[in-house]
Amino acid sequence: MPRSRRVREAVLRAATELLSEGGLPAATVDAVSARSGVSKATIYKHWSNRICVAIDAFALHMAEATPVPDTGSACEDLTQQVRNVAAFYAGPVGQVYAQLLAATVTDPEAAELLRKRFLEGRRELIRQMWRRGVQRGELRTDIDVEVAQDVLFGSIIFRLVSGHAPLTPTEAEAIAKAALTGLLTNRPATPAGSVD
What we know:
Layout: H1 3-26, H2 29-36, H3 40-46, H4 50-62, H5 74-90, H6 92-104, H7 108-135, H8 145-162, H9 169-181
């Protein structure tokens, strides 16, 4: 195995262990260097900062993707996936993800890395699920899949970072139901003062 690959694996393994033990605050470059045996200078040759190291470690070792459901029903598939995502974020790994999200707010390079290494793969799985539902005639073709994903899963991320409400299976099911059935009755009420 080439030395650069061994170095990369040692750093990411050490960062993963530190993230598991103490979250993002524990995964400093000093701590990763000490645990991996890789010098700080070498770490900085491969990553621009500790947030980027943590994102690569998170995406590679902590964020194991679960297979997307394929029950034969788009409604059931999407509801189950909302439950899966909520369960993922409700656990310790979800807290690490929240810390990474917060850290990327002021670091555009890290934010792009998080999207590329972690989010894009997950979003592609939902696109595949969406296409199946559209092909079966169960999902509206006039709704963009990217918008649909944000509606279905955005509230879970909001709950994760704000902590204003739990991420229980019951709550996940309620979120999925609201997103899939809509928030309006069949005919919206006419605003006061308007003319039909």
